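User: For my dataset I need records formatted as: sequence, then structure tokens, nothing else. Please produce one.
Assistant:
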Amino acid sequence: MEKENKQYNNIIALQVNGPLNFGKLEACLKQLIRRHESLRTCFRRIDGEWVQWIEEEVQLTLDVVDIKGTVNDKHIEAWIQAFDLAAAPLWKIGVFKESEHRHLIVFNIHHIITDGTSNAILIDEFTTLYQNDGKLGALPPLTIQYKDYAEWRMDEANTANEAAAAYWLETFSGEIPLLHLPADHSRPAFKTYHGSAEMFSIPKEQVLEIKQLAAEQEATLYMVLFAVWNILLAKLSDQEEIIVGVPTSGRNHSDIEHVIGMFVNTLPIRSRISAKLTFAEILHAMKANISNALEHQDYPFEDLVSQLQITRDFGRNPLFDVMFAFQNAKAQQQEAGQVQLNELEMKPYPYRTTTSRFDLTLDGEERAGELVFTLEYATDLFTRETVMRLIRYFRTILLEVLKHPAQKTGLIHLPDDQETDRLINRFNQTAGEYPEHLTVHQLFAARVKEHPHQVAVTFRDQCITYDELNRRAQQAAYALQAQGIGPDQIVALITTRSVDMIAGILAILQAGGAYLPIDPSLPANRIAYMLDDAGAQVILTNTSVENQGNRIVMDMRSLELDHGAPFQCRRCTAAVIWRTACILRELPACRKGFWWSTAPY
């Protein structure tokens, strides 16, 4: 209900070629408003509860934008505004004028009053009215409105659908698995809904093969595609239990066939995808899952979430973070607005969304014998390169199951030959010259000189440049040398996971010492034993350290700056790795690793 929230805005764009009659356009929109109460609906809080409020009349003003050129997604994005759900109407119309005979009509509709089928109805009725000069008699009469459906749903909920509730609660009994997909970025603490989308298609010849496979397995095209999507998610996450959300139209009665409103319900389908199972076996289980879910589809998703009492994670959606949707050719043709009017030609404009409600949403449709997919993704998690790779993997699995439906899915290899060569060979071409005569801290010093203002370390919301990191390390190194630390002397580094840890390692190396890393969360007697065994007399820390006898404890948080640069030895023991005894090691691999990590990729 946030006023600045735009991720629930549905955008439908139609490219119009020909002489657009603005008077007729406005007349058609007014007829739609009179016909559908949802298009006059807003939501108001009364006695602490949100209720549907239907206005008798509303004014819908056309936003005409004269582009004088070619319209693009940026024009549309700049025009889209968030809705105040307490003020009707919750939809807006923009007309972008490219020339006298070329326009783009954009519908911006809040999802609270519409769904995919309703969008198709809206476009179908709009074009029918336009073709019939705005005469309402051209449309079939409505016997009920959305409020009647809402009241019926409330009565049904009060009747308590015990069988449906029992099914869903049993399905999600026990621990509910979270899907952990390999992402390019860390998941933010709060969802931002930033997103993008990529489109791809499956050719007619392959679609025929998929339908044949579905027929052989006594399944549907939808089920085959849904099974492939689940196998991909299982392989990417290395998890056997997968939950994917699927929308259902919610239109189970002929009286609501032509009503605009939010009817859709979401079904969380929980599946077991084992690498030991064949595709045919997975598809067979998938058929049962989907059939059972559809049998109990009238149970509201929000009621299930409430019953399960799921701990809220503001960075995720409840129950699932991945969606799958597939529409038949007829519904998609209506929604796309593929119509030829007497004087106008209308066709869909492929607006690329900039929002994503879920981590991934695969939305498919059958169009002219082909399968056309849109893969919507959260840009907070995934890059375009990764998403294009996921599309290749989806194609690969589809091809494999068409060829070998009796093959165990664990044998399906996702990367193609080119990617396999890159992973195994090109990424492992590590042979090369590197400066063996330089120590780690000398390599670091050279990096500081080359790029002093570039970010060296990032930890959570903290970033530090090479110059800043070097000054902090030198500050601590000078203090260490003042305490007598020199070549091959051990300094215990007891720090939390932080920027201080990296600065402490560099400081000890710059001072000539060897660092002994110790986890501060270890029991005190364990830490004391490690210190005694290693013979460490100096402790460098950024946290509280219990009394350690006569050892010197240096807190990095209270060291003074500007002591000058410490003396640096050229080749000393770098680290002490404690196991059951103390081991001193020279670390040429560490020098090589630092060199490669800072070299251009």
